[in-house]
Amino acid sequence: MPKIFIHNKRMSYCCSEQEGLSAEMSTKTISLAVFLFTALTLTHAALVDYRSGAAETQPQFKTMQDSKIGGNQMLYLQARKLAGAELSLGDFGADSRRGVWRGLTRSKWSEMGLCCGVFDLLVNMKGGRTRTMLLRSLLEPKNKLQLSHEFGIDWKAVDGHMTRLLQYGLADEVMIVGTCRVYATTRKGKCALELVDNWHERHKVECT
After folding, report:
1. Which residues pair with 146 in a beta bridge?
2. Which has the closest alpha carbon to 158: 183, 180, 179, 134?
3. Is the pTM of this model over 0.90?
C-alpha cells in the first residue's frame, strides 16, 4: 500500500508539472499572437495613412498645375484681347472711311466699266492707298525696283500690289528690257484714279 501511494503521488506531481508547462506555453503563444496582431495592425495603419497622404498630395499637386495652366491661359487670352482692342482702335479711322458700293458711287463706277472689286481694291481694302499711289506713279512707265525705291517699299510688297493691279487690268506690262519688266497705268486705271480722287474729295467735303 505505501508503494502505491508513493506512485500516485509521483504521477500527480508529473501531471502538475506538465500542466504548468502547458499553461506557460499557452501564455507565451497568446503573447506572441497578440504581439504579431499588434504589429500587423500598426503596419497596416501606417500603410493606409501613407497611401491616403499620397492620394491627397497628388490631387493637390495636380490642382496647382491646373491652376497654373489656367492662369497662363487667362493671361494669353487677355493679351490677345488687348491686342485685338488695339488693332480695332487702330483700324477705327480706316473703317470710318470705308466706302459703300451703292447709290451715286455705284452708278459712276459702273458707267466707267469698273466693278465693285476695283472699288474695294483702291478704297476699302487694306493697302488701297498704296496701290493708288503706285497706279498714279505708273502714269510714267516704271519697273518694280524703281517703284520700290520711289516709295521706300520692299520689293516683295510692290510685287504683291502690282499683281492685284494687273489682275484687275488697272496696270499692264508695256515692255521688257532684259530681265526687267516695265509697267504703266492703263486707260481703265486712269479712270479708276479719277473716280478715287472724286470719291475722296466728296467725302472730305461731307466730313467738313
Report:
1. none
2. 134
3. no
- CA-CA distances (angstroms) from residue 196 to 114, 171, 201? 11, 15, 9
For the record, the C-alpha cell of 1 comes out as 500500500
Per 3-state DSSP, the chain is made up of helix, strand and coil in percentages (nearest 5) of 80, 5, 15
pLDDT digits 0-9 by tens, 170-195: 999 999 988 899 999 999 999 999 99
Distance of alpha carbon 178 from its chain centroid, rounded? 47
Question: What is the C-alpha separation between 130 and 134, in angstroms, rounded?
Answer: 6
Please state which of the four CATH numbers 1.10.10.10, 3.40.50.300, 3.20.20.190, 2.60.40.1120 is assigned to the domain occupying 103-207: 1.10.10.10
pLDDT digits (tens, 9 = 90+) for 108-129: 898 888 888 999 999 999 999 9
